[in-house]
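Entry 14. Ran structure prediction on the chain below.
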Amino acid sequence: MKLLRPTALALILSGSALAAPAFAADKELTVFDWAGFEEPVIFQGYIDKYGDSPTFAFYGDDDEAYQKLASGFKADLAHPCSQMVSKYRDAGLIEPWDVSKIPAFSTIAPEFLNSKIFKDDSGVWYIPTDWGATAIAYNKDTVPAEDVASLSVFIDPKYQGRTSLPDSADDVWALAYLATGVTDWTKVTDEQFKAAADWLRKAHQNVAAYWADPSEQAQLMASGAVDVAWSWNDGVVLLEKDGFPVGFQRAPKEGSSTFFCGYINLKNGPGKEDKAYDFINAWLAPPAAKGLLDTIGYGHTSTVAMETIKDEPAVKQGLSPTNAPILAQTPNDPEQRERQLAEFEKIKAGF
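Output, structure tokens:
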């Protein structure tokens, strides 16, 4: 069985992705990104104009990316999810975008910019581009549908050593909060934090591996090593393309999570600023939505772009609204996020 993007996955797992660009192409634009977003169909307009893709360097999670950039790694753009933007702003690592150079900026759905962290009197600091869900991926041949009707599947002794969680503090805390009855992580009490941490420690007992990348998660499931995973859309897309009997339960009784990500303009980038804008404009062009959906399984933030794919089965199955609760991974208190990150590291270490 061969899954997509093995080179990017290997670089992430080895750590070499953070040391140097993984796919060198146009040297005048370096994009620090998640593995998988180097697919040309997502930014075809840039290639049409310049004849090549930007140079990409990859990371496995948001916190690793921040640490690398804060330590001096040079790139022109990075692709954090929304809850990280305040950290980049506070550290002085980014500068505002000139949206007069981004014609499709006005087509971004307003809910993706509804924060002073993203847009304030000093400018637009974030260009949201893509969004998805985190929910239960499961092997339909080995896991009964009733078992994934609840997030308690992750602490069920029946699945000891048969589950996988993302090596991402944001996603695992979204899971733990949902499982303990919290759907708004911007208003978490000490008692709610403790309850979620206790639940996460129980879930840790069932974990065979924490996946660092959707390709790794897909490989864990395809190999039979795990039956249930807390998954983004892209892991499911990879498995579906390989004919694996994967289910994606987005409506367990406690709910699922949503997230959105986008691009920041890094200060003192080594490349050409005009090319950074051309890359963003290519991303926001309507044809990018189909490429994004087909390769990653995510939705597009542009209402015009989303209109072109609204009838796609992948949109209806993996991105449509559900009747279950939703925890939206919007910006939360930076101190609380650091507290969650530290506690997650303890839990993974068995404490």
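The longest strand covers residues 127-139. Will compare against last week's run tomorrow.
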